[in-house]
Inverse folding.
């Protein structure tokens, strides 16, 4: 099960949205094989009737009031400006992205 | 302040503990309580994955190289309230992924005790800065040992609080079910003082501690004697955890054991001496077993990688930091920005996590790991029914040479004593318990490398582990 080949690495890299070159694919496949080979030891553990962990200290249903942000508009605009400043490419206070479809 | 700046200017070019140094001390907040607060005016360093408004926050990644934090993390607001002064931001493994500090996109932090060795990761710069007196204290973050490992290898005190005791708001997320911010300090008392300032409920972090709880003053019990304390020593921590060659479950483990990658015998001796000291202080010592700890690293790397693959999806070349200049369309912006912006270890973990969560493998890896995590938690709970604390070495060996843990799997196995604690959500502290002189060909150049001792407590029982640590620390003086 844990034998991960180059083709599978290509598929995972596409899902993860990371471009890998040929050399990186080979290296990644062999490194992931070694790590997954170690992780396979989990199969030894009997987990029948064991619930997976949901929250480690047992918190449940942490809710807050559905209240609108009461910051003055000016402050909100200043916050937005700060966030837009962290964006690599923007125009007229909007985030700019490349074309989704090829021309 | 000026003294610290002078020291940093002198030492940092070698150590690489700080990624950025603030020229003007940040002291915007003033209130009357400041005069009585222990932290007022005290210079501290902050790991560069915790946001300080208006300052760069890189997570030691090329992808966030020029990112300016738009707001303060809650821990930073808390420290500002207490009058803290920030010296600068410290180096780390990229996005806090690593055991040595070498995965930083901006070069490794060196160990202050021996510049040919690593500082330990991922809070490498924070521990090195405190250990070399380039800060009075520092904040780190700990997902699988990232506060305790560098504290152990640099000879500092490192406290990883219970999951949720300290708000994660404004901490750049790695694995959200495990991440926790905590102090790295010179003394146990300092750790308690810093914890007092940063612990508590935060409406911005829904996993933070219940707002109705009254948190104790963590300094109050430090000097109380520990006579009658019930201490558990897990034999699993001492039985050469990576497997002695004969019982190793894989060829890899056998090879590691042969390379001496199990528990180092001198580290073992110092941990045993610390346990003997606890006994001489009146503690009752018993051997116990944590059989599921053997599966902690396998469990940890599935859970941590899965959460990483989800958390790091936000670095898309569009919303933050680095964006490739070579993209023709949107898909290429994603593929190339991430390829050019992330380092090798980050890519490896994103890939591993994506694989573990992908169709057909989810049950076998992620769900299985979450179930084993339940069993690991149960192991600890069983011991804590009868005992107050669990103790053992923090790291299986002293700080390795630079490049000595370059194989990804051996680096993962360095977390063997620390990662189980995060999986169970427990608090733990690492304190120095002695030094080792590694064998060297150069007899004139004798270096002494510190060893850390770990004390693990029940959920939200930080006061107890701090008390035990303080007693142990004072008895060594």
């Amino acid at each position: 099960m844990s034998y991960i080949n180059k083709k599978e690495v290509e598929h995972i890299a596409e899902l993860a949205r990371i471009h890998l070159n040929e050399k990186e694919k080979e290296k990644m496949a062999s490194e992931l094989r070694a790590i997954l080979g170690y992780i396979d030891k989990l199969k030894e553990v009997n987990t029948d009737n064991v619930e997976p962990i949901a929250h480690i200290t047992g918190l449940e249903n942490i809710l807050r009031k559905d209240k609108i942000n009461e910051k003055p508009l000016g402050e909100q605009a200043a916050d937005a400006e700060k966030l837009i400043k962290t964006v690599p490419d923007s125009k007229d206070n909007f985030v700019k992205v490349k074309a989704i479809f090829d021309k | 302040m000026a003294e610290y700046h002078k020291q940093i200017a002198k030492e940092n070019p070698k150590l690489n503990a700080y990624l950025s140094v603030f020229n003007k001390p940040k002291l915007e907040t003033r209130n009357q309580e400041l005069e009585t607060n222990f932290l007022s005016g005290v210079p501290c360093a902050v790991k560069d994955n915790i946001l300080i408004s208006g300052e760069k926050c890189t997570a030691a990644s090329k992808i966030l190289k020029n990112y300016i934090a738009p707001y303060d993390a809650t821990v930073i607001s808390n420290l500002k309230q207490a009058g803290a002064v920030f010296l600068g931001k410290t180096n780390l493994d990229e996005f806090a992924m690593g055991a040595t500090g070498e995965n930083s996109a901006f070069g490794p932090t060196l160990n202050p005790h021996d510049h040919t060795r690593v500082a330990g990761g991922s809070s490498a710069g924070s521990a090195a800065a405190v250990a070399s007196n380039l800060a009075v204290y520092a904040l780190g973050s700990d997902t699988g040992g990232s506060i305790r490992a560098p504290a152990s290898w640099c000879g500092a005190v490192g406290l990883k609080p219970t999951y949720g005791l300290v708000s994660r708001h404004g901490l750049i997320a790695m694995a959200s079910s495990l991440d926790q911010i905590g102090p790295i300090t010179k003394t146990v008392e300092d750790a308690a003082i810093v914890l007092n300032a940063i612990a508590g409920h935060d409406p911005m972090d829904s996993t933070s501690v219940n707002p109705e709880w009254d948190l104790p003053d963590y300094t109050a019990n430090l000097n109380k004697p520990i006579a009658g304390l019930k201490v558990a020593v897990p034999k699993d921590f001492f039985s050469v955890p990576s497997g002695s060659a004969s019982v190793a479950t894989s060829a890899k483990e056998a090879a590691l054991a042969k390379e001496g990658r199990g528990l180092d015998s001198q580290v073992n001796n110092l941990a045993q001496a610390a346990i003997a000291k606890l006994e001489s202080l009146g503690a009752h010592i018993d051997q116990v077993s944590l059989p599921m700890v053997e599966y902690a690293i396998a469990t940890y790397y599935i859970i941590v990688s899965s959460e990483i693959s989800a958390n790091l999806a936000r670095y898309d070349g569009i919303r933050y930091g680095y964006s490739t200049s070579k993209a023709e369309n949107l898909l290429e912006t994603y593929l190339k920005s991430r390829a050019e912006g992330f380092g090798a270890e980050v890519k490896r973990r994103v890939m591993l996590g994506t694989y573990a969560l992908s169709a057909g493998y989810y049950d076998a890896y992620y769900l299985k790991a979450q179930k084993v995590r339940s069993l690991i938690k149960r192991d600890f709970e069983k011991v804590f029914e009868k005992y107050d604390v669990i103790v053992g070495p923090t790291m299986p060996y002293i700080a390795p040479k630079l490049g000595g843990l370059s194989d990804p799997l051996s680096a993962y196995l360095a977390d063997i004593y620390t990662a189980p604690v995060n999986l169970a959500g427990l608090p733990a502290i690492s304190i120095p318990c002695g030094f080792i002189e590694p064998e060297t060909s150069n007899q004139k150049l004798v270096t002494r490398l510190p060893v850390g001792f770990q004390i693990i407590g029940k959920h939200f029982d930080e006061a107890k582990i701090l008390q035990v640590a303080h007693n142990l620390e004072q008895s060594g003086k």
Observations:
- Strands of chain A lie at 90-91, 94-95.
- The first helix of chain A runs from residue 6 to 16.
